[in-house]
Amino acid sequence: MKIVVIGSVAAGTSVAAKARRNDETAEIVVYEEAEDISYSVCGMPYFLGGEVDELDTLIPRDAEWFKKRFEIDIHTNHHVKAIHPLAKEIEVYDKVKGEGTRETYDKLVLATGSYSLTPPPFTLDTYENVFHVKTMDNTKAIDTYMKSNEVEHATIIGSGYIGLEMAEQLTKKGLKVSIVELADQIFPRIDADMAYHLEKELQNNNVDLHINDKVKTIKGEGKVEAVGTENGAAIETDLVILAVGVRPNTVLATEAEIELGETGAVKVDNYMKTSAEDVYAVGDVAETFHRVTGQPIYHPLGSTANKMGRIVGDHLTGGPLEFKGTLGTGIFRLFDLTVAFTGFSEKEAAAAGFDPVVVHNIKPAHAKYVGGKELTIKGVADRETGRFLGAQIVGPEGVDKRIDVFATAITFKATAEDLFHLDLAYAPPYSTTKDPVMYTGMVLENARKNLPVVTPKELVRLQDKDVPLQIIDVRSPKQYEKNHVKNAVNIPMLDLRKGVADLDHSVKTVVYCNKGVTSNTAQNLLLNIGFLDANVLSGGNTNYQNYIKSQNR
Fold first, then answer.
1. 307 and 352: one domain?
2. Active-site residue (options: 42, 59, 209, 424)
3. Residues 139 and 225 grouped into a single domain
4. Angle subtended by helix axes 10-22 and 302-316, to nearest 10
5. End-to-end Cα spacing for the chain
6. Which ranges carry the Rhodanese domain (predicted)?
7. Is 513 one of the annotated active-site residues of the chain?
8. 70 domain-assigned
9. In which residue ranges of the chain is pLDDT below 70?
C-alpha cells in the first residue's frame, strides 16, 4: 500500500508516523511546499518576543530525521498542483529543480492546512513591514525585519490567539503596541463580560486599544508608516501584524470536486474520509463536529490536527481509532492572566437548543492564606437536564487545570451536580476546600432548581424595561458607599432579618454581596421567610461593576 500525504506540519507528520508505527510494509511519501516541516506554529510569537531563544527549537524534526526514524520520504519544496482521485494520481512540481511529475497513490491524505486572511486595505506584496504569523517563513521574515530595521511601534490587526500573544510578546520586547479590532470586544471567541478582563489587562500593560474599529487608510510607500482607522484614530507604526483569522486551504480539494462542509472546510466522516474514494483530510483543512451536538464546526488548532493525523494513520493501517469531535477548548496567556474556555457559551448554548442557566463564580485558585489569587469562572448548564455545557475562565493561576476538568466533564456528559461530587485533590497550596470546579457545579445546580441567579446583563435588561424590582446590597455601608448596583438599598447581612420587614414579599428581589457567597446565605434567608422570587446577582457587585464598565467604555 502506498500512502501519499500532502502537507507536513502537525497533521501530516502525525499521519505518516502513526501509519509507520502500525505497518512496516507500507510505502509512505509526504510532500511539503515549504522548506521546514513539523514545526510549532503556536510557538512563533514566543520566539519573536524573545522568550524562546533559538528558532530551531520550534523545528524539532526535519525530513532526514523522519527518513532515519520511520523510513518515510518527505519531499520539501514540492508543490502539489492538482489531485486526480479517479486516476489516483497527483501532479507535483519540484520548486528546486523546476521539474514536474505525476505520482500515484493508494491512499491520499490532504493536510494542506489553512491560510491567513489579509483584510483590506492591506496587501502583503505592497508593504515590506506587513506580516502574517502563520508559517516558519513568516517568522523568519519578521525576525529578519526587526533585526534590520528600527522597530519601536507595532500595530496588530485582530485580537484572536495570535494577535493577543503577539501583543504580549512584543510589549515584553519593549515595543509600543496598538491593537485594532473590528468586533466590539477583545477576543470575540469568549463572552463580552469575560473579555473585559482581557481589555483591562492590556490597558494595564499600556497596549493601545481600538475596539469596534478598522483600518481605513495607509500612509507610506513600500512601507507602512501610519494607519488611519474608521473611527478617526491615526496610528504611527513601524510594523504591522495581520491576525484576523484563518480559512481552510481547500484549493486542491475544490478543484478535484471534493465536497466541502457547512463551515467551508473539507467535509469528512469519523475516520476523516472525504467524498472522494481513498482520499482523507486532516488538520486545519478539515471540518470537525461538536462533541455535544454533533453539528459541524471549524476548530483549527495544532492539538486537534495532531489528533486527526494519528486517527487517519491508524485507520489506514487497520486500526480502530475514530474521531470523537471537539469542544472548542482553548487556552492562552496574556501577561499576568490565563484565559481558557471549553464547550458552549451562554449564547451558543441557546443557539444549540438548550435553555441555559449561567453563573459567575469568583474564587481563589487555592487558599488565600497561602497566597491564592482569584479566578473568575463563567459556567453554563442546561436548565432542564442539568447537563454541564461550558465554561470560560480568566485568572492569574490555576486556570489550566480547571478548564481541563471542565472539558473532561463535558466529554463524559457530566451534570452540574456531578461537578460538585468530584473527588478533587485538596491542600491549601493547590486548591480550596470547595474547589472552584466543585463550587461552579454547586451554584449551577442550585440556580437551575430553587436558588435562581440573575446575571448583570439580565438585571440591567430588567431595569431598562422598568420591571418592578427590589435590589438589596448586603455588604457593609462603607462598601455600599464606594459603589453599588443602581437602585439598590443597603441592608447589611447582620440586619437582614429585621431590615426586610417592610419589603414586598411578592416582588422580584435581587440580593448581592461583593462576589456571591454571602448573598447565597441572604437568598436562603429571604426564601425561608416567605419571599416568593428571591434571586442572587451572579458574581456579586464585583461582576456587576465590571459589566457596567464594559458597556460604558
1. no
2. 42
3. yes
4. 30
5. 61
6. 465-553
7. no
8. yes
9. none
Q: Provide the domain limits for residue 277.
A: 2-40+57-113+247-316
Among residues 283, 316, 349, the one where a domain terminates is 316
Q: Give the number of other Cβ atoms within 10 Å of residue 77's Cβ.
A: 14
Q: Are residues 9 and 30 in the same domain?
A: yes
- 232: helix, strand or coil: coil
Q: Which of 307, 309, 284 is nearest to 116 (CA)?
A: 284
CA distance 272 to 5: 13
Q: How far is CA 391 from CA 70, 170, 358, 379, 403, in A?
A: 41, 29, 10, 4, 7
Residue that is written with C-alpha cell 481558557 in the block = 340
Q: Looking at residue 444, which CATH number applies to its domain?
A: 3.50.50.60
What distance in Å separates the CA atoms of residue 475 and residue 343, rounded to the nearest whole number?
Answer: 34
Q: Is residue 51 part of a domain?
A: no
Give the end of a domain, one of 432, 449, 466: 449
The pLDDT score that the predictor gives to residue 551 is 86
Please say whether the beta carbons of 289 and 296 come within 8 A.
Answer: yes
Residue at 45 is within a domain: no
Does 35 fall in a domain?
yes
**331 with 339: CB under 8 angstroms?**
yes
Instruction: Tell me, yes or no, whether 367 and 271 share the same domain.
Output: no
Q: Is 465 found in the same domain as 406?
A: no
**Number of domains present in the structure of the chain:** 4
d(CA 244, CA 121): 13
Distances (CA, A) of 97 to 72, 78, 104, 137, 199: 21, 10, 20, 20, 50
Alpha-carbon distances, residue 331 vs 151, 159, 351 (angstroms): 29, 14, 23
Q: What is the distance between the alpha carbons of residues 161 and 331, in angstroms, rounded to a whole number?
A: 9
Q: CB within 8 A of 104, min separation 6: which ones? A: 2, 88, 89
**Predicted pLDDT at 177:** 98
pLDDT digits (tens, 9 = 90+) for 476-509: 999 999 999 999 999 999 999 999 998 999 999 9
Give the pLDDT score at 517: 87
